[in-house]
Structures are given as C-alpha cells and as structure tokens.
Amino acid sequence: xxxxxxxxxxxxxxxxxxxxxxxxxxxxxxxxxxxxxxxYPPQDPGLPLMPVKTLLGDQAELMAMLKTHAALPASQFATxxxxxxxxxxxxxxxxPGSSSRAFSGAGGLFRASxxxxxxxxxxxxxxxxxxxxxVEERHVLEVRWxxxxxxxxxxYPLGKPLEGLNVVDMAGRKWAAELEGLWExxxxxxxxxxxxxxxxxxxxxxxxxxVGTFALKLVxxxxxxxxxxxxxxxVQTLVDIVSGNAGSRDTFAxxxxxxxxxxxxxxxxxxxxxxxxxxxxxxxxxxxLLDAIVSLYKTRWKLNKETSYADRAGIYLEWPQAAHxxxxxxxxxxxxxxxxxxxxxxxxxxxxxxxDGQDEGLPIVRIANADGEIVTAVxxxxxxxxxxxxxxxxxxxxxxxxxxxxxxxxxPLAGRPVGTVVPRAGAGRAHAPQPAPQxxxxxxxxxxxxxxxxxxxxxxxxxxAPGDEGGAAARSTAQPDASAARAxxxxxxxxxxxxxxxxxxxxxxxxxxxxxxxxxRFRDLLPKEVAENLPMHDCEYLGRIVHIWRTKANxxxxxxxxxxxxxxxxxxxMTVCRDPxxxxxxxxxxGYVYTNPSTPRKLVYKVPVSEGSQSTRxxxxxxxxxxxxxxxx
Length: 633
Known about the structure:
Layout: H1 2-11, H2 17-22, E1 33-35, E2 38-40, E3 47-48, H3 52-58, H4 60-70, H5 74-92, H6 108-124, H7 135-155, H8 159-164, E4 165-168, H9 182-189, E5 193-198, H10 215-219, H11 221-230, H12 232-243, H13 252-271, H14 286-298, E6 308-311, E7 314-318, H15 321-333, H16 342-351, E8 365-368, E9 374-379, H17 393-397, H18 404-409, H19 444-452, H20 456-459, H21 482-488, H22 491-501, H23 528-531, H24 536-551, E10 559-562, E11 565-569, H25 570-574, H26 580-589, E12 605-608, E13 616-623, H27 624-629
Antiparallel strand pairs: 1-2, 3-5, 4-5, 6-7, 7-9, 8-9, 10-11, 11-13, 12-13
C-alpha cells in the first residue's frame, strides 16, 4: 500500500523537485473552492492602485487649509507645496500606515503624510528658528526653516512603514522603495493592484533611514536649490529629521516635528474604528453612526449654541435632540440597521463605546445649554473624532456662554452664591444671580494676606461630580464660619471672613482698560469674564500678576512677551502666592496658561531671558488669548 501511494505521488502532474523549490517563492493566489458564488476560504483581493488625482481629491479639505495658511501665489504654491505632495502620492499611493493601528487601511500612509505636513507647517508659524542671527540673515532663513518643517512633516511618517512592508505584484515581483515609487513601478509592470504583507506587525508611521535614499527626489530640485540658497545646513537637517538620525535631535525644527507628530498620533488613536467595536458575524453599524455624528457636527449642530457643547473635559450632545438628528441623517443616507428610538440608539452608542458611560454605567449627564437651562446630554468618548485639526478642547470651550457650574452656583441650595458665568444677553431663561451686599474697600495687601492665611476648606473650589461636564469648571467658594473666625482671636481671620463674604466691586466696561487706585483690590483689575470664572483667592493672585506687569515691579525676575504669550519667571510667582503649583493648575483647568499639545500637563517651560538669548529661566506662560483679555498686550 505504501509503495502504491508513493508511486501515485510521483506520477501526479506538477510534482517533483522543481515544484518543491518553486513553493518557497511568492506564488499567485491559489484557486479557492466556490460555494454558490461565495469564495471560501476568503481570498485577499490585494490593494488596488489609485490615480494620483483621486488621492489628492480625497484630501481636498486639508489641501485647501494648507493653501490658505501658505498664502502664496498659485504658481509658487504649486511648486513649493503641491509638487512634493503629488510626488509623495505617486511614491506610496495606496499603502497603509500600519497593520491595524494608526493610519491603517488603504491610503493611510499618504493621509498621515499630508496631515503631518499641514499640522507641523502651521505650528512653525510664529516660531523663531534663528534668534541668534542678524536681521537680514533672519529675513532670508526664517521662511526657509518654516518650509523645511512642512517638508519634514510630509516625509516623517514614511520610513518605518516602508521598512516593515513587503510589497509584491500578482507575479510575485517585489517593489524596492529605495529605487522608485510604487505607482511608477506598477505602471512599468502593467499591474493595477499590489499585495502588501507586514514583516513587522508593530511597524507604525515614523522616520527611518530608508527615507534618506529618496527624500530629495520627492522634494524636487527647484525646492532643494532654494533651501541651499539660504544655508547648506537646511537640507542636511531635513534629511537627518526624516531619517531619524541622531544629529537632528537637538535642533528646534526636529523638536517641533517630534512634538507635533506625537499630538497627531494621539488624535489618530482616538479616531480608530477599532475603538468603537469590531465586525464579528452580522452587521456593524458603528461606521454609519460615526459618519452621522461627524457630518452633523460639521453642518447642522452649532457648537456651544445648539445640540453640541464643549468644556475642557469633553464634547457633549444634547439628548434626545441629537438622537432625532442621527436617525434622520441615517434614513436620508439609506443606512440600514439604525434604531429608530432614542433609547435603543443610546444603548447602541454606549455599547460601541462611541459615548462615555457615567455613574453606574449610565451615559446620560446634565449640562447647561446656551440659554442657561439644564438639559440632558451624552458625552463623546473621543472628542478628537469630530474636532478639526486646528481645534483643542480649551479653544472651543472658551466660547461656551454658560457653564454647568455657573448655573449651579446661582442655586440657593448649593449654598455658594458667589461669582458665576452669566448667560449671554437676551437669553432670559436662567435665574439671575442675586446681588451681594457691598462692603468697604479693603487694602490689597490685607486682602491678599488674608486669602493666603485661609484654611484650605475655605478657599478651594469643589469640582463637579462625574457627569456634570467632567468637573471642568469650579464652583464658588464657601463662606467661612464667623464664630470660628472669632474663636481664633486673630485679626487675619476676621479680615478673611469679610473678604470671603463680600462681593467684588462693580466691574468697569470690558471695552477699556481698568485703572488702578490706591485702595482697589487686586481682583478688581481683572475683566469680569475672568474674575467670575476663578475662585476668589486665585483672582487675587492673578490680579497681583497684572499689577506687577503694569507697574513693571518684577525686579530682576523674567517677565516678557514670548511667542506663546506672557511669560513670568516661577521665582516671581513664588512672591505672589504660597502654592504656585495649585494656582497654575487652576489656571490650566480654565485654559488660561499655555501648554504644549504633546505634554498637556506640563505648565513650566524654559523661556529665554530675551529673544534669541541662550540664557533661560523656568517660567509659566499666560496664553496669548489670556494676555489679550488681561490687557497685557
């Protein structure tokens, strides 16, 4: 029987040593068994190559934003920006950026490149790259350094995916990224699709040495020559950054590229479809729901005015109004499997993790709408899903007319009826705060000392409970017990009790600068919208900082405008308040201080003592919009 089986095996067509050797090479896909038109086991159809015009058309929104930001004549924009982007589209075409995470899927690598190029180029605007140069040299180099940042962003994501991909055509011929672009290679071979296999499942978009072999080809001769006309260092720095060479690690441009790429990666992680459920057996409607939410957020819903609201903890959708809009949108698009009731839709959004669960897993929260009314809402689990590339939670929350904490502070049951966020004019549906009795004006030094001496329980604001907009805004401070103050026998405690119970003096109009008097409390130097959004003791600290800026009483401490806002040395802040870290955390919670997007918890930075100086001081930075509100600019 064994001899018969071996003879049968040798006589079978296509057997023999030559076939065994061929089995080790890449072969065309084997023929699958077909069951009534269904191919089983599933066969990989490969990645269809896409015309460059189609790839560019898919990114029309980013291209339009880039053109607006560049603000160049059409011919110059075509040479500097459109030509390199087109060459990158030809080079990587439909390749994915990773196997299953960031920028995965057909065309993901090109999307990563153009998104990074725009974000990094925009972040380079306003940066000083040549602070140690003369005026004429800076005029020549600064624009080139910013353009270098655009090119670095465009090429930065390409390296690691290209090193981790094995790309072949239907005949098994392998593409060599070092020699030519994917579109050119496939066109010569007469192929319209490719098969891409990951040799490393952990490969993610990022720099690698392979990019150095074709980087300047993608930049283009005219653009390389323009960079060299400024300085030969520019081209070498560009190649070092996109190749991941150690020589670029300390340059300002390299640091900017790495920081912004980290922020882009973080945003992309929040947009991954895998975060919102995966297809098993049946129909996955999560992509349809995501499409509806993103489209409605950009068109019908008016942020902080109608249906969608934001604070520094997240983005909220008024419910069930948002549910009705989602169901209507999906019906018009012809999407199947979408529940028609808001209750069933709520359960589906929660189980697919598109929205957050709150207390005891319930996704419904209470928020204040634009008119100051308390309404129910749900919070998106990943706000980056709908935010534009140039938006942050802090920036969009700053335009919120009414906060939940402001409405609660007006409720007598809350027991803390001081400074609130007042609804916009004409709303009329929120209860107006009752005016507090006016007290005699106290000397600023006495008030500041009294506030510094208060117990922690008297001065700290309490956060909202989970579900009340994530605890983004603070409630007003509690009134101290007068009998307890008298029991201490200290004059500082009595002064503190008076200042806590009193109301701020009537603020001046927002249009003009506030004037200082000898007997005006420091918090009276703040605009009303700022003073009402901070605890009393933080108002005194911030008011004193404004006073120091206006009187230039900073002594030898650093205090100057920088590219991100108004910088103050930490040593100077220590002379103003006893707990600088808690004060800065309070300002950061409200978006008043500058934070780098890649390190949002970092509040202290090394700031040069003067523009272009190598000497730096540990400083915090009041954001540019805060400085404008406070009249520091």
